[in-house]
Amino acid sequence: MAILHVQQIRGHLEKTFAGLIEMSDYATASPEQRGQVFLTRSLAAFAIMHLADITPQRSAAAVTDGTGDNGVDAIYFDEVERRLYIVQSKWASDGKGSVERGDIQKFITGIHDLINTRFERFNSRVQAKQGEVEAAVFDATTKIVAVVAHTGQDPLAKESQQDLDDLLVEMNQPTETIEVRVLRQINLHGVVAGTTTMA
Q1: Is the Cβ–Cβ distance between 78 and 142 less than 8 Å?
Q2: How many CB atoms lie within 10 A of CB 67?
Q3: 74 has which bridge partners?
Q4: How do the residues of the chain divide into helix, strand and coil, expressed in percent and rounded to 5?
Q5: By residue range, what is the domain housing residue 140?
Q6: Average pLDDT over residues 74-91
């Protein structure tokens, strides 16, 4: 049952990231809206926490979600492994569907803007990570990991997947510099339940 899996993911996120996610921009929002934003941001942090094997505190600090984020909800550069994680997350309380194509296209635009260091197109949270991003993109040994995390059951629509495939073709010439990871409900729940990893 999708809703049960989503509730279990929700419980894990609330327990892991309580008090760690920056929410001051939603101080006057309704409890429902604050809850939705907290879960979206926590999901982005959760993906980075497990992919980069870092603490909840460090992964929470990677969150950039907010007005003007240009489709980029979290950024983290692993200086040891030379991997720049760029994340878009979508929380669906009903556990249905997938990510809209428009959101995928916005994310791809955000990735392009980051790689081209066009930080004026982003909010202050992304701009605060300018040094981190530049340290990554100016280093030939860096690999970019573009991550789409969502709690829907469905895989990406054909058109959305094609957009990401086109990004891979574009970016991986002449050498492979980027990979795409799509984490949906089954992947997320497997990590929460301890039956699978994101590695």
Answers
A1: no
A2: 8
A3: 63, 87
A4: 50, 15, 35
A5: 2-193
A6: 97
